[in-house]
Amino acid sequence: MANIIEFPIQKPQSGLQRVRKSSKIELKRTNQMDLFSQKSPETNIYVMPSSLSPFEEALMLDEKGDPNAKEAYMNAVEQNDSAADAYCNLGILEYESGKTIRAIDSFTKSLKSDPRHFESHYNLANLYSELGNLALAKVHYEFARELQPDFPDLCFNLGLVYAMTRDFDSALRVLSEYKDMVPEKDSLNADKLIESIKKLTG
């Protein structure tokens, strides 16, 4: 019978990651003449965009906690406006509503739309880790790391999964990289995990 290893930390370090596009209005520069300026006749005028895209509208509702955000994200998908991002954020809303299977389905649809979607890989990895499916968590963490290797929480979570699957060399390597990315005060959990691994491996 295999020994069950208890590590001091057993859950992913951070929660799910929303896709956040800048909701600030981007001003577009033109070289039209400003008739109202006392300065040089050739100055720049800023043109305000007329409206938000369906995804931006959904994100705005989401950030306000509006229950219509789910429907708005589905509208963005139907209009093919940032479909992968919309499915990803919809997955988070499903998870927050306690609908884990629907959340996984949404993240999977996001990846079908964009197989290299970082947030969806990361979110799926966190969900699978929480559910105890460490093999799938590892696959998605590793893929996400290929896309964004400098995301600290991803490195910590991957190190934890390596430790729990007894790949101690990989765990120590990734946790060491995590410690290099964060201030010393933020590396206490990694220190505890590294200490536990070293006790196990002698």
3D architecture notes:
- The chain is mostly helical.
- Among the domains are: 52-115, Serine Threonine Protein Phosphatase 5, Tetratricopeptide repeat (Alpha Horseshoe); 134-202, Serine Threonine Protein Phosphatase 5, Tetratricopeptide repeat (Alpha Horseshoe), CATH 1.25.40.10.
- The protein has helices spanning 54-63, 69-78, 83-96, 100-113, 118-131, 134-147, 152-164, 168-181, 188-201, and strands at 28-30, 45-47.
- Strands 1-2 form a two-stranded antiparallel ribbon.
Query: Which fold name fills CATH's third level, the topology of the domain at 134-202?
Result: Serine Threonine Protein Phosphatase 5, Tetratricopeptide repeat
Q: Helix amount, in percent?
A: 55-70%
Number of strands: 2
Question: What is the level 1 CATH name of the domain at 134-202?
Answer: Mainly Alpha
Task: Supply the CATH architecture of the domain at 134-202.
Answer: Alpha Horseshoe
What summary fits the major beta sheet?
Answer: 2 strands, antiparallel
Radius of gyration: 22 Å
Topology summary:
Blueprint lengths: L27 E3 L14 E3 L6 H10 L5 H10 L4 H14 L3 H14 L4 H14 L2 H14 L4 H13 L3 H14 L6 H14 L1
List the main descriptive attributes of the protein structure presented here:
202 residues, mainly alpha, Serine Threonine Protein Phosphatase 5, Tetratricopeptide repeat, two-stranded antiparallel ribbon
